[in-house]
# Entry
Amino acid sequence: MKMIKLFKLLIIAFMAIVGFGFTQQDTKADRLIGIWEPSNGKSRVKIEKIGTKYYGKIVWLKEPIDPTTKKPKLDKNNADESMRNLPLKGYRILKDFNYTENDEWSDGTIYDPENGTVYSCVINMKENSVISIRGYIGVKALGRTDSWKKVIVK
Amino acid sequence: MVLKSLGKLILFLFLSFSVPIYAQIDTTKSQEGEEDYSIYENVESEGKIRVYCNPKIFDLSPNRFISVGYDYIVKSNLESTQKGAYLNGDQFNNPRTTSFVNHGLRINANLPVISKAKILWQIGGAYNKINFNETQKDPNLASHDQDELMRSLNQSGLTNSNLNTTVFKPLNEKRFIIFQGMGELNGNFGFSKNSNSPNLNTIKTSMSALYGKRPHDRLQWAVGLTRTYRGGELNYFPVIMYNYTSVNRKWGTEILFPGRASYRRKFNSRSILLAGYELEGSSYRLYNTNFINKNIELRRSELRLRLDYQRQLKGFVWVSIQAGMRYNVNYNIDSLGNSNKDFFRGFVGTQKYVMLNNLSLAPYFNVSLNLVSP
# Structure
């Protein structure tokens, strides 16, 4: 009976340690969750966690109306014709980011609605309110970095 | 009983950790309608960040990281004087005409060293070859000084190799400066055993500095000064950049005057047509050439009037197909004498050429595959 109690205690202790580790890791990783604004100030992207990965969708556009059609902007440059009628607002442009370590989220992609192209992407957090987001082709050296600031809904 | 409970506990914990991993995620559909987006209109910044202007505007033809192309100039006639002392515009006495075809590989690379919102720094290099296939010589003249020039050109062709760097520094949300520098090693040299070897003392440097403004996403202009060999010989020009995209984003301009200017027609985000011109040129050292004078330089410059169709093939790989006319601006020969130092003639200099050449108008084609930048 004592052995069983000891065994139970060990299991609980083990789970507590593992659980604490997960929680700490999650807390660090979840700092990415929130509303972010690219350096050009023309859009806002809401990053959220779905499953274990991080995704970001456009939630605000400085110029939401297409000057040609006078209607809300659509994803008209998408390579997939069936997607071209979807509104840009609400469109997920960041996909599949995993928190690795050292304040970095990788393995994701970023979609540029300006040319309908998807780039590999890595996100680094410089401080809690600023992330550097780098889209690249194949290797990180062939890319471009932008700084996004965190904003809070009033 | 205890083991059973333990088993249930482990199963529960396992499932608790596993479920999120296997959750089905629809990552493509728009989320429009699922939430009220108006709440994101009024926000306050949590951090401070400076806003810098982007180096590009909407719909510019894509920047190229790596470009591999082939250039072909259909038969052109080269008319030359004998060796002597000539001013530009002097009459061609006793000229010789030879016809040839030019063709060659063109490889260019521009890779980012720093690519951030507050500074963009690229370094690049190029290798451009011009081979000569002589097709016809004027049979009425048995010997002419042009023979020596053609022997030099036929042997190794002309090689242009350069290293360059570009810095784009945004000053704020709307203003920016650009600096470009280039070192060129040009001449009738090659990499085979029997080819001439280039002399590093013949490196020529060009540079440009521009200051500009980007009032909005469809307009970018700049003014500056350049020291350039595009005219074939050293010269200094004012530079005007004017990149514009129309409101409906169907057309625009890409101008870096006097170097190049194009009207851009966008068919869609994956194909564009440019119609315009580019001034292309360099000064080439002619090694192992039996001219009386030493340190011979071929001043090559041409205006290429062209249509350039660019289209995405797949992902980041684009193809460019150019066709147009090559108009000769300069093909004269200078001697730098014993000093081996290049000189500035400008538009009014009185330094004399040792040979005048004139190339006829000729059609040309260029095809390239390009890895384009984000």
